[in-house]
Predict the structure.
Amino acid sequence: GQQLNQSPQSMFIQEGEDVSMNCTSSSIFNTWLWYKQDPGEGPVLLIALYKAGELTSNGRLTAQFGITRKDSFLNISASIPSDVGIYFCAGPTSNTGKLIFGQGTTLQVKP
Amino acid sequence: AAGVIQSPRHLIKEKRETATLKCYPIPRHDTVYWYQQGPGQDPQFLISFYEKMQSDKGSIPDRFSAQQFSDYHSELNMSSLELGDSALYFCASSQTSGGGTQYFGPGTRLLVL
């Protein structure tokens, strides 16, 4: 079945550094979604991408929909302690919209 | 802005008991999805409903059933609970005409003892 391969699995960075994570698939996606999840909480939508090549920003976050439609990346600039959490990429696998998720990137920020 | 509401937030059950999880989607959202997330795992799709009809089904055990009601809220019924059912259960809602982007609720943490 379809899979999303997300990397890196974890990152430990210094406050103020920039962060980049990406998601790849062997299948084409028409939508890429990036979520952040805090422990025990629900995933919170950060950025939604709907068009190949699209580059979208949300504050310090920037995400791009790969031109091949098989990949996406998320950048966080000038990280702060509250950026700590697990970041998931996700994409719909059918016309019913059910999502599959990447394995997640755990981000830790050292003040 | 209104978000997805789930209840209860925490639930403790014994093996072989039943549990009912409730989900109230964002107003005017017509689609509800249920996901299960085990410790250290990514969310896994269980089942979805569009306009009160089941629209898709994932790896949902036969012991589980769900429905969407006329007011669009949804309930996930889990019977003959097993230890392995302990997980976070999320409901997400979307508006089909709005591109289908899913917004997740805070989840129900189910612990089966």
The longest strand of chain B covers residues 87-94. Chain B touches chain A through 28 residues (CB under 8 Å). The two ends of chain B are 37 Å apart (CA to CA). The CA atoms of residues 24 and 50 of chain B lie 14 Å apart.
